[in-house]
């Protein structure tokens, strides 16, 4: 027993045999634990992930298993080196710093891969909807999260290496301020694009009107939105201007309006006007293409050259071509009713009455 104690206390260079043996055990233990974590637990998790249709869990498992295995090995190497460097000047301090730096980088590596897994989940969820704007928003959030994570990891690494974070942050603040001034419009359009993607006032394929321009949205980008006008020209609108504009989305209409004034000549009698109102309203009520929840047919005005009949209703369809066809049918039906009642559609006229004095005549 004494000989074994003497053997373990024998020195090999600056270390005793006990220190070297413990350091070896730390490394061996880290290798065994890593093998269990990566092979046994990792394979079981992968088997569970194979039963699902999504690819996000596969990416997440790889994002966790790889960094965890690396952390176990780094921790084992750190313990072994820390034991051997306990009596060496500055070695212990630098081993702590290096351990913190490597640990930060491995954790950042795992989080980077978890962001990819989250992006896959978002992409799969967006694919189940008919809204295409999510396809633009998810890559943007993915890149923004990675940039923020990279900046945080950089700051932590610099701090662990002994650099002054306050001076570094001050420099980054001044540089960021100068960059923001130089790229003010670009950043404004970027945030405008994010606002449009988040608020969703319109989607790709919608017919919109803004600032006197109307057309169909073809693409929603991060800097601008492309609108195909009805003249078949392509208009690129900066997102900042579009986010601040009043946008009218015609594609979200539940029904389309028909509004008109029908003027008949002043030779119409009251009974003819009552019949006109009743027959036009009955005609609208007989058409299933006309929304029956609300409609107005009223004799409203004695106009300058006509008796005005106000017609206000909605078509069930929102398709523009079908709406125009229904509007045409209503107009022709009103003309038939007017003709059948012996009335005439009025147009601007003036009647001049000349009166002569009989004595002068």
Mean pLDDT: 79
Strand adjacency order, main sheet = 6-5-4-3-7
Overall geometry: elongated
Class by alpha and beta content: alpha+beta
Radius of gyration: 40 Å
Largest sheet: 5 strands, antiparallel
Q: What percent of residues adopt helix (DSSP H or I)?
A: 55-70%
Element-by-element helix/strand order: HEEHHHHHHEEEEHEEHEEH
N- to C-terminal distance: 158 Å
Strand content: 5-15%
Compute the number of strand runs: 10
Count of individual helical segments = 10
Overall number of structural domains: 3
Task: Explain briefly what this protein structure is.
The protein is α+β, with helices and mostly antiparallel strands and 361 residues long.
What this model shows, in words?
The mean pLDDT is 79. Strand 4 and strand 5 form a beta hairpin. The protein has helices at 2-8, 17-50, 56-84, 91-127, 134-160, 165-182, 184-199, 239-244, 270-285, 320-340; strands at residues 11-12, 15-16, 207-210, 213-220, 224-229, 234-238, 248-249, 256-264, 296-302, 307-315. Helix 2 (17-50) packs antiparallel against helix 3, helix 3 (56-84) packs antiparallel against helix 4 (91-127) and helix 9 packs antiparallel against helix 10. The strands form 3 sheets. It has a 5-stranded antiparallel beta sheet with strand order 6-5-4-3-7. Strands 8-10-9 form a 3-stranded antiparallel beta sheet, with helices on one face. A two-stranded antiparallel ribbon has the order 1-2. It starts with a helix and ends in a 21-residue tail after the last helix. With 361 residues, it is an alpha+beta fold. It folds into 3 domains: 2-163, no CATH class; 192-251, SH3 type barrels (Roll), CATH 2.30.30; 253-340, Alpha-Beta Plaits (2-Layer Sandwich), CATH 3.30.70.100.
């Amino acid at each position: 027993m004494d000989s074994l104690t003497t053997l373990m206390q024998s020195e090999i260079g600056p270390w005793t045999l006990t220190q070297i043996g413990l350091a070896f055990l730390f490394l061996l233990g880290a290798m065994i634990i890593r093998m269990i974590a990566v092979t046994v637990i990792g394979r079981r998790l992968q088997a569970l992930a194979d039963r699902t249709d999504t690819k996000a869990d596969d990416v997440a498992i790889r994002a966790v298993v790889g960094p965890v295995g690396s952390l176990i090995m780094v921790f084992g190497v750190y313990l072994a080196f820390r034991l051997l460097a306990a009596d060496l000047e500055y070695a212990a301090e630098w081993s702590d710093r290096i351990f913190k730096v490597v640990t930060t980088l491995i954790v950042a590596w795992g989080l980077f891969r978890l962001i990819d897994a989250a992006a896959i989940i978002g992409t799969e969820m967006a694919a189940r909807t008919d809204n295409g704007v999510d396809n633009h928003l998810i890559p943007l959030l993915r890149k923004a999260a990675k940039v923020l994570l990279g900046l945080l990891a950089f700051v932590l690494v610099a701090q662990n290496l002994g650099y002054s974070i306050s001076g570094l942050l001050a420099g980054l603040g001044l540089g960021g301020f100068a960059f923001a001034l130089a790229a003010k419009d670009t950043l404004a359009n970027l945030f405008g694009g994010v606002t449009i993607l988040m608020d969703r006032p319109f989607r790709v394929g919608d017919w919109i009107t803004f600032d006197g321009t109307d057309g169909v949205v073809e693409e929603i980008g991060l800097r601008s939105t492309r609108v195909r006008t009805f003249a078949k020209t392509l208009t690129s609108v900066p997102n900042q201007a579009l986010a601040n504009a009043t946008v009218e989305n015609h594609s979200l209409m539940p029904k389309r309006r028909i509004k008109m004034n029908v003027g008949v000549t002043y030779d119409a009698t009251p009974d003819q006007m009552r019949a006109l109102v009743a027959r036009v309203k009955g005609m609208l009520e007989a058409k299933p293409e006309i929304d029956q929840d609300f409609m107005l047919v009223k004799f409203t005005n004695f106009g300058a050259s006509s008796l005005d009949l106000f017609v206000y209703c909605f078509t069930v369809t929102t398709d523009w071509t079908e709406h125009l066809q229904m509007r045409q049918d209503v107009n022709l039906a009103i003309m038939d009713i007017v003709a059948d009642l012996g009335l005439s559609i009025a147009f601007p006229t003036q009647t001049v009455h000349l009166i002569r004095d009989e004595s002068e005549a």
